[in-house]
């Protein structure tokens, strides 16, 4: 058998001194330990605020140019990539092709572990080619330890095709052999896990937080929100969204609930359209023209 690479230098593979007696702790003490360690993951993001802000700018620029964000990972990283992508259409009324999450092994790997697929760099490259990624797009790779061949293959191919590349890792990137290097490193140093090597813990938590930040704030930059309100939703999809849409309209236009619901119906569930119709006293078609001219930015129309 060919010996595998020695990964003992990787931060997430090292034992955590705080949890060496994990199996001897009371449940209460173990819960406290995990809670304390989870706070380390949050703090690790704070140390990389500048790099995360750069990532937001890169993704927002891609969106503004009609490009996409494609996120690649294996195991937990891949599942988080798919989760974040799946949440963008209902939150921001985006085309599902605008943010795409790719997991090594495809859909079956979402619900059961398929461990060997992460070692296939050619599969990662193939996914990039299938997506036809190019200069307007951003490829975001996720690998807690930074060594996943599937992710390396995806980033290398994306770079070759002219896409911007970001690599989110939870270890020191100076030890990572990726040629050419990504346009942006995102090293979120969460430290050794409570359960040694189990990167679904702090590393997974940090990854979800980073993805939350990047996609949410990139969407804010392109006008998908008004203040902290989700104005770009299809409010007739279900009762919850209809209620939320009416409350958003009421908050911005000061209409009462009944009038907001009536306006929402006339706007065919489009919250932005409804708000412009009320603010400008215009038809839905005129509201759409105003929104198109403002590149979807409600703030540019109603202040």
Structure write-up:
This protein is an alpha/beta fold and 303 residues long. It folds into two domains: 25-221, 3-Layer(aba) Sandwich (Rossmann fold); 239-302, Helicase, Ruva Protein, domain 3 (Orthogonal Bundle), CATH 1.10.8. Helix content is 49%, strand content 8%. Helix 6 links the parallel strand 3 and strand 4. Helix 8 packs across helix 9 (257-266). The mean pLDDT is 96.
How do you describe this structure in short?
This protein is an alpha/beta fold and about 300 residues long.
- Tally of helical segments: 12
Helix/strand-derived category reads: alpha/beta
Per CATH, the class of the largest domain reads Alpha Beta
The CATH architecture of the largest domain: 3-Layer(aba) Sandwich
Index terms:
49% helix; Helicase, Ruva Protein, domain 3; single chain; 303 residues; five-stranded parallel sheet
Record the SSE blueprint:
Elements: H1 27-46, H2 49-64, E1 69-73, H3 76-92, E2 99-103, H4 108-111, H5 121-131, E3 138-142, H6 149-160, E4 164-169, E5 184-187, H7 202-221, H8 239-253, H9 257-266, H10 271-280, H11 284-293, H12 299-302
Helix pairs in contact: 1-7, 2-7, 3-7, 5-6, 8-9, 8-10, 10-11
């Amino acid at each position: 058998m060919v010996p595998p690479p020695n990964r003992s230098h990787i931060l997430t593979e090292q034992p955590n001194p705080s949890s060496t007696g994990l199996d001897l702790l009371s449940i209460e003490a173990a819960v406290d330990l995990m809670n304390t360690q989870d706070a380390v993951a949050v703090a690790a993001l704070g140390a990389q605020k500048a790099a995360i802000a750069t990532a937001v700018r890169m993704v927002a620029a891609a969106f503004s140019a009609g490009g996409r964000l494609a996120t690649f990972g294996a195991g937990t990283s891949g599942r988080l990539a798919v989760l974040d992508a799946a949440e963008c259409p209902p939150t921001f009324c985006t085309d599902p092709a605008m943010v795409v999450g790719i997991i090594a092994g495809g859909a079956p790997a979402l619900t059961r572990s398929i461990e060997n697929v992460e070692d296939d760099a050619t599969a990662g490259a193939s996914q990039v080619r299938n997506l036809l990624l190019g200069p307007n797009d951003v490829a975001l790779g996720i690998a807690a330890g930074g060594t996943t061949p599937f992710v390396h293959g995806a980033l290398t191919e994306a770079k070759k095709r002219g896409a911007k590349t970001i690599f989110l890792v939870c270890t020191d990137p100076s030890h990572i052999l990726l040629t050419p290097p990504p346009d942006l490193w995102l090293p979120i140093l969460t430290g050794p896990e409570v359960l040694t090597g189990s990167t679904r813990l702090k590393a997974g938590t940090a990854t979800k937080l980073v993805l939350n930040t990047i996609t949410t704030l990139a969407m804010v930059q392109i006008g998908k929100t008004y203040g902290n309100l989700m104005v770009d939703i299809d409010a007739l999809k279900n009762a919850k969204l209809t209620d939320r849409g009416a409350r958003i309209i009421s908050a911005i236009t000061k209409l009462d609930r009944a009038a907001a619901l009536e306006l929402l119906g006339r706007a065919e569930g489009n919250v932005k359209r409804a708000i412009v119709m009320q603010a400008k006293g215009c038809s839905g078609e005129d509201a759409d023209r105003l929104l198109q001219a403002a590149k979807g930015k409600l703030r540019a129309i109603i202040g």
